[in-house]
Amino acid sequence: MRYSLLLLTLIITLLSCNTFATATKIYVWRSDDGILVFSDSPQTGAEEVEIKEPNTASSVDTSMLDLTPKIIKDDYQVEINQPKQNATVRDNTGSVYIAGSIKPIFKQGLAIQLLLDGKPHQPPQSHSMFVLRNIDRGEHIIKMQLLNEKGKIIALSKPITFYMHRASVNNAN
Asked: How far apart are CA 144 and CA 101, in angstroms?
């Protein structure tokens, strides 16, 4: 009963939408899964839905909207948010979680390269979250490079120094 009421509400909403204002015919049928399907193109076994009144479209004043496309400058900034400068990471497995941010916006086609102690760590990726595993004890420096579609560096973060602290067991033999 509840499903029927929801379906009836959906049908009424669909039939009153402006998207069907120019459609001359609407067809309905059940899919193989038993789902009711509405379309403006007929299918085998479809029935035409009779529309009593044509839909009318009302005009909306859009003069107050700013419809000009926003231009995103390619003046990027990369920042490492975690770990903080001179932080001590205490993890006996040597794991470090690194989080960065890109400003103004991370566009498709860009990639982030993490540098650990001056060397690339894994291939560039499409997000600024990294997990380092089995990092040796001591001081380490990380940086992030933002690369464009051609692999050119377009932004570089400030270097962050962190200290890995791992418990050590010395053998007395």
From this structure: 10
Q: Which helix (H) or strand (E) holds 71?
A: none
Of the candidates 110, 101, 116, the one whose C-alpha atom is nearest the C-alpha of residue 152 is 110
Contact by Cβ (8 Å): 77, 149:
no
Instruction: Classify residue 80 by burial, with Cβ atoms within 10 Å: 0-12, 13-18, 19+.
Output: buried
- 100-115 residue pLDDT tens: 998 877 777 889 999 9
pTM higher than the cut 0.90: no
Cα distances (angstroms) measured from residue 120 to each of 20, 31, 98: 55, 52, 14
Q: Which amino acid is at 8?
A: L
